[in-house]
Amino acid sequence: MLKVRIIPCLDVKDGRVVKGVKFVDLVDAGDPVEAARAYDAAGADELCFLDITASHEDRSTLLDVVQRTAEACFTPLTVGGGVRTVEDIRRLLLAGADKVSINTAAVNNRQFVREAAEKFGDQCIVVAIDAKRVSPEGAPPRWEIFTHGGRRETGIDAIDFAREVVSLGAGELLVTSMDRDGTRAGYDLPLMKAISSAVSAPVIASGGVGSLDDLVNGVTEGGVSAVLAASIFHFGTYTVSEAKAHMAAAGIPVRMV
Amino acid sequence: MNTVVVVDYGSGNLHSACKALERAGSDVAGEVTVRLSSDPEEVLKADRVVLPGVGAFADCRRGLDAVPGLTQALTELVQEKGRPFFGICVGMQLLASRGLEYETTAGLDWISGDVAPIRPADPSLKIPHMGWNDLTQLRPHPLLDNLLGSDSSRDAYFVHSYALSAARPEDVVATTDYGGPIAAFVARDNVAGSQFHPEKSQGFGLALLSNFIRWRP
């Protein structure tokens, strides 16, 4: 049986983990490679790096981080942030990324998704969808795509966009609720449910995890195939194996390590 | 000296395949060298060969054909010299007779069968089949024998939308279940391949690669 994946996500800026990872044993909490290695040993099912470096003129720092991670961790790695061209994707894959996540470039040009999927295969193209609820309280929910960290609205309906990018070849969707991100109030479950039931591709839930029950609800109510979290793991609130034990107790198939 | 050549034909994921083989090789007695190459001469000198693959079947096949003499060198090494061969993901799918991804493309035809879209019996199952799934071993094989334990199941990492449907059932060594059985590990004589990614399957995957480096078919 296919297991539900738990994916710790690291925000990386100029080759360093943003805010650091508060693990007991880490010598350098700001080194993404060391953090990735710790999560790998802890039984993370996949790892995710999100590069939030402001300038994308020098991508070599990120490529170096990816390459060193791939040397140390034999676990699937998704890398996103500032991916704009087929050449960006190729470089990340050659450095050792398994999947590449596309965000703004897919919003600006849907055909980029098709081009990337035809070149590298559907399975390594993840489209990251940052969605915000735009319908008033009490009205049927509607979400739109936002870019630039939730600051710029696009007027694009999130569900329509999800369907479209999957039909163009996106192998997976990373859905982040911009309303919930950083709140620890749990995933936006109606958003997750609406997208996961609209598309054939797997959906990763992101944004808002504050407790282990939030992970369970993402699967049982949101219908997602994988759960991504950052702060609950980085701050040492819970370990990956505690998260897995909690999900297994709720009847969710997970990979026990 | 035990030289493993990882075939470089423009497909992604070469770095992680090489690193995993180097790590796996450190568990094997004797000196193990892992070399990345697209040079047919180099391939012909290899003790064993790994064909990784990420991407679309047709694109990978074009990549192989774009290097003059590469496919012939692989065929000579594997079919005539009988050297061990291991294909990973699309590298395993290329063993088939034909691939039906985007267009119909000829494979190496070392394992008779077609590579076709996965169509799970349960329509709610997502495509690609992505994540950790357990293996069921159908027959003994030196690459898997000491790994799967008494319950003969172990999780491996899969990412694929297409699967190899083997014409000869005996070529399928292990399956995984995703709305029906999917060929997870195929083998015939000195040729083997896995649909899953051993280089991404943590300890289990590294142990399998060590077995490949030791394999004397």
TrEMBL record, chain A:
The keyword DNA-binding is assigned to this record: no
Active site: 11, 130
CDD domains assigned: HisF
GO MF annotation terms: lyase activity
Known catalytic reactions: 5-[(5-phospho-1-deoxy-D-ribulos-1-ylimino)methylamino]-1-(5-phospho-beta-D-ribosyl)imidazole-4-carboxamide + L-glutamine = D-erythro-1-(imidazol-4-yl)glycerol 3-phosphate + 5-amino-1-(5-phospho-beta-D-ribosyl)imidazole-4-carboxamide + L-glutamate + H(+)
Compartments, as annotated in UniProt: Cytoplasm
Pfam family, one: His_biosynth
Originating organism: Camelimonas fluminis
This enzyme's EC code(s): 4.3.2.10
PANTHER family in alphabetical order: IMIDAZOLE GLYCEROL PHOSPHATE SYNTHASE HISHF, IMIDAZOLE GLYCEROL PHOSPHATE SYNTHASE SUBUNIT HISF/H IGP SYNTHASE SUBUNIT HISF/H
Record's function text: IGPS catalyzes the conversion of PRFAR and glutamine to IGP, AICAR and glutamate. The HisF subunit catalyzes the cyclization activity that produces IGP and AICAR from PRFAR using the ammonia provided by the HisH subunit.
Pathway: Amino-acid biosynthesis; L-histidine biosynthesis; L-histidine from 5-phospho-alpha-D-ribose 1-diphosphate: step 5/9
Subunit details: Heterodimer of HisH and HisF.
InterPro entries in UniProt: Aldolase_TIM (IPR013785), His_biosynth (IPR006062), HisF (IPR004651), IGPS_HisA/HisF (IPR050064), RibuloseP-bd_barrel (IPR011060)
Name of this chain's protein: Imidazole glycerol phosphate synthase subunit HisF
Protein family per UniProt: Belongs to the HisA/HisF family.
UniProt entry keywords in alphabetical sequence: Amino-acid biosynthesis, Cytoplasm, Histidine biosynthesis, Lyase
Automatic annotation (TrEMBL), chain B:
Catalytic center residues: 89, 197, 199
Tagged with keyword Cell membrane: no
Pathway membership, UniProt: Amino-acid biosynthesis; L-histidine biosynthesis; L-histidine from 5-phospho-alpha-D-ribose 1-diphosphate: step 5/9
Keyword Acetylation: no
EC id: 4.3.2.10, 3.5.1.2
Subunit composition and interactions: Heterodimer of HisH and HisF.
Matching NCBIfam families: IMP_synth_hisH
HAMAP family: HisH
Protein's name according to its UniProt entry: Imidazole glycerol phosphate synthase subunit HisH
Source species of the chain: Camelimonas fluminis
